[in-house]
Amino acid sequence: MQPGDIFQSYHFKFNNGETSNKLIILITDPNQSTVYYFVLTTTQNNRGLRRNTPGCYANELGGYYFFQKGTDWFRDDTWILFEVYKKKAEDILIESLSKNNLIDKGTMKKDNFRALIKCMKKSQDIERSVKALLPY
After folding, report:
1. SS3 75
2. What is the DSSP code string of 34-54?
């Protein structure tokens, strides 16, 4: 596992307890901590997010980054939401192996991942403690 890896989580559990099939992106280096930090992706524009202009929206609607379809691994227009979720290393192992819930789908291109991280560091909605763990 490395920062920028994209995972399919078939039963991703949100903070409110609901579950959904989601693509999530690892944003921190798993070699630096026993807690992994992820952000969510969505292809559904249910929040009024900007659609036609790819790039950084650090301080709009909780912060997000927009990639047009065909970028990296994303088959559809994709918003990476700055909703940070953390998981313990042992939970990742359990989800990957015994539950078969977390499947590695690929890795973002380095320049696109770097742009995402730079954008996240500009966001007022990302906690300082999380920003300190982000690469670059």
Report:
1. coil
2. SEEEEEEEES---S----SS-
Looking up tokens 């690929």, which residue turns up?
Answer: 106
* pLDDT, tens only, 36-78: 899 999 888 777 776 678 999 998 878 999 999 888 878 898 9
Task: Tell me how many degrees the CA angle 61-107-73 measures, rounded to the nearest 5.
Answer: 70
Sign of the alpha-carbon dihedral angle for 101, 111, 83, 77:
negative
Which positions ≥6 away from 6 have C-beta within 8 Å? 23, 24, 25, 41, 72, 73, 104, 105, 106, 107, 108
Token look-up 């693509």 returns 23
Rounded to 5 degrees, φ, ψ at 85 are -120, 140
What pLDDT digit, counting tens, does each position of 98-116 carry?
A: 667 788 889 999 999 999 9
**101-23-51 Cα angle (round to 5):** 165
Q: How far is 80 from 54, CA to CA, in rounded Å?
A: 11
How far apart CA 116 and CA 101 sit, in angstroms, is 25
